[in-house]
Amino acid sequence: MFSAFRDRLRRAWGPRTLGVRLVLGYASLFVGSTALLSILAYVLFIHFMREPDRTFVEAQGRDLKAAYESGGLEGIRDELASNPRYGRVEELLVRVADSEGRLLLLYNPDDWRQPELEKLAQQPVPETEAWLRLGPAEDDDALGVYAVRLPDNGVLQVGTDTDVRDDVLESMRDVFLAIALPIVFFALLGGAIMAYRALRPIRQLVVTLQTIADTGDVHERAPVDHTHGEFAQLGDLFNRMLDRIQVLVTGMRHTLDNVAHDLRTPMTHLRGTAELALQRERDPEAYREALSDCLEASEMVLTMLNTLMDLSEAQAGMTALRPEPIRVSDLVEEVTDPYRFVAEQKQICLHTDVSPDLCAVADRARLRQVLANLLDNSIKYTLPGGEVRLTGNLRDGICTIEVRDTGIGIAEEDLPYIWDRLYRGDRSRSERGLGLGLSFVKAIIEAHGGCAKVESTPGKGSTFTISLSCAREHDGDPSYS
Question: Are residues 404 and 288 in the same domain?
Fold first, then answer.
């Protein structure tokens, strides 16, 4: 039975360890602070109650000493009997002994018992004055005695018990103990209420996460209460992360559809060519042509897969680069030559304007892929009769290459996302492609330590700009020889 209760308690509070810690922490802090303040108040109360007793006894001792000096033992008796200003004189014990310890006078209206009197007789004569510690009497009242040396080397001892003070202090202790349990209860209750309210945004966040985990619906959002400070920031960041995840998931779904569509065409062509070649006997030339078609289709598939792998390596920072000084004009001519025929077929003017002295430090093969992606993109989205211009210049010691077109442009809401992998804007979905080209461009350029940016106006065209280190900065560096 006990184990079942323990298991139930563990299931109930196990997932809420933070809440339990908050409750216990708040309760401990509250109870500890209350206990510390109570102890401090008790100590101060003892001090303020003890001080009047000490002051009263010391004043009595000095007055009685003065009476002894002026009138001897009779002077002390007269002082005790005739001075009405001492309202507490009946609480006093007055004992006078000579230098040999013989008792000369004993005034004991409070009826101190013999054991306490014997303890007083055993106390040495102080040099001038001193407080004696006798411990509690038989009735458990604490005793305090003030001793004064007399002129004839005798001793005057004035004492009083503290029964009233101790009764008050005992009552205080009883009160503290009586309120301790309610204090602990209210501390736990207050801690539970505060923890419940403080952790409400976390519970809402957990509910949202659980809903997403159970349903897979990333459209769910956590409610954000902006009065909770850091928790509101956490909820807002969580929702923004979900927004990004939703964009990526949507992009991946569209991209997978595009990948499936783009791969279906070459794979269908490859399969159809192979099946036709196997259906009947053909001459070697026909088989050679069929194999050539199959190789072309498989090459297209491999290109898509290699692009995905290259992009993943580049974004992970694992691309192996072989930077070297490159004459940009020569590389531009290599890249643009295969596209001139495509541009002519679409009736697009393709121009290049690169300074012959412009040199960049880059991996030749990777930079060729970057320029080919940008050029392919510009030609793809430029309407017949348009223009694509590729230029290269030296600006502030940086090699800058621009690919400018007069195409359809990019919508303003798509600009922040065009460099993301698998992202394709609404206006580009009619064209075949994977949405990987610009992601690859950005990843490769940043791997070179450069930057890539875009400016675009819908309906007027786009300008893609990449910046790389100039070769002049590395002249004489053996790593680029």
Answer: no
